[in-house]
């Protein structure tokens, strides 16, 4: 269920927030209250609020840990979390942002301040959600990095291209890849199975510290400057071994069984071989190997 103008208030002493909830409701919000982190996560299985006001320190699951858990769920990660805390020490403020919070207010909360912050974050989150839905419908490859350089969201097309161009064995590599792409725009960052190059271009900031990237397939299928055939000497020992078995007519599955690796890993090695040798097909690589490895 998706409820408009809903705010989830998470506090182990909700009675102290009665006036805040009343003010929120008088300004058009529907309030839902949870007394601890576990209860909050259970409520999020049923509703998707526009924002969450979260007490930082609670018995059991703290507000920080609750925020970390909900940010790991793609269905809930877009919800802005504003921490309510009596703590104003820098390390607590930093922890609040590090775990995924977008803002914080110091207790005792001042209602006008809370309302102003809610309006801003709800508006930004809603605009971002609409943009993401539009990207999904249009089949665009869109990637969003948070303020810490982590992947906050990616469209289905971006996920498919990233897995094809970079592999999915190590998700942390996606973060390194994406941050590298931001530092040197625009450029080719990988090659797809059909021979086209995957290009990335930053689109600029979209929220507090967040950056959006656009991924697209280069229709020209032209390699970047400096790419092309560099010869057998550039191959790693493992790539040479894989190519040797290709020249003998073995399939990726056969090679994986022989060398003790998955067919996907074999395919990744072959992609690097094709790029280094400047060839497009398995047959061309095998022919070149037959001549040079004979």
Helix content: 40-55%
What portion of residues belong to β-strands?
Answer: 15-25%
Per CATH, the class of the largest domain reads Alpha Beta
Strand order of the largest sheet: 2-1-3-4-5
Overall pLDDT metric: 78
Largest sheet: 5 strands, parallel
How many helical stretches?
Answer: 11
CATH superfamily label of the largest domain: Response regulator
Index terms:
294 residues, five-stranded antiparallel β-sheet, Beta-Lactamase, single chain, 3 domains, five-stranded parallel β-sheet, alpha/beta, Rossmann fold, Arc Repressor Mutant, subunit A
Task: Describe the fold and architecture.
The protein has 294 residues and is of the alpha/beta class. The protein has three domains: 6-130, Response regulator (Rossmann fold), CATH 3.40.50; 140-218, 2-Layer Sandwich (Beta-Lactamase), CATH 3.30.450; 232-292, Orthogonal Bundle (Arc Repressor Mutant, subunit A), CATH 1.10.10. Helix content is 45%, strand content 19%. The protein has helices at 18-26, 37-44, 63-71, 90-98, 111-138, 156-166, 171-183, 237-247, 252-259, 263-277, 282-292, and strands spanning 6-10, 30-34, 51-55, 81-85, 103-106, 141-145, 151-154, 187-191, 197-205, 211-218. The protein has a five-stranded parallel sheet, sandwiched between helices. It has a five-stranded antiparallel sheet with strand order 7-6-10-9-8. Strand 6 (141-145) and strand 7 form a beta hairpin. Helix 2 runs parallel beside helix 3, helix 8 packs across helix 10 (263-277) and helix 9 (252-259) packs across helix 10. The longest helix has 28 residues, at 111-138. Mean pLDDT is 78; it is low at 220-229.
């Amino acid at each position: 269920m998706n409820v408009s103008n809903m705010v989830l208030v998470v506090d182990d002493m909700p009675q102290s927030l009665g006036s805040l909830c009343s003010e929120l409701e008088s300004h058009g919000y529907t309030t839902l209250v949870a007394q601890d982190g576990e209860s909050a996560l259970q409520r999020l299985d049923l509703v998707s609020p526009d924002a969450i006001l979260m007490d930082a320190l609670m018995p059991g699951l703290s507000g920080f840990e609750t925020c970390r858990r909900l940010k790991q769920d793609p269905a809930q990660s877009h919800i802005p979390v504003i921490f309510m805390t009596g703590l104003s020490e820098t390390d607590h403020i930093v922890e609040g942002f590090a775990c995924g919070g977008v803002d914080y207010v110091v207790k005792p909360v001042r209602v006008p301040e809370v309302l102003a912050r809610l309006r801003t974050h709800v508006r930004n989150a809603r605009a971002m959600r609409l943009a993401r839905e539009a990207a999904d419908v249009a089949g665009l490859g869109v990637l969003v990095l948070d303020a810490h350089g982590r992947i906050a969201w990616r469209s289905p097309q971006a996920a498919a291209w990233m897995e094809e161009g970079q592999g999915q064995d190590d998700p942390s590599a996606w973060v390194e890849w994406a941050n590298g792409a931001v530092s040197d725009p625009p450029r080719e960052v990988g090659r797809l199975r059909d021979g086209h190059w995957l290009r990335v271009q930053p689109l600029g900031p979209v929220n507090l510290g967040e950056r959006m990237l656009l991924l697209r397939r280069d229709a020209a299928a032209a390699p970047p400057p400096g790419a092309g055939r560099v010869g057998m000497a550039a191959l790693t020992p493992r790539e040479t071994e894989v190519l040797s078995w290709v020249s003998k007519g073995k399939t990726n599955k056969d090679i994986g069984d022989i060398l003790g690796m998955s067919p996907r890993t074999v395919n990744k090695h072959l992609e690097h071989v094709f790029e280094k040798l400047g060839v497009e097909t398995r047959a061309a690589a095998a022919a070149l190997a037959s001549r040079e490895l004979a």
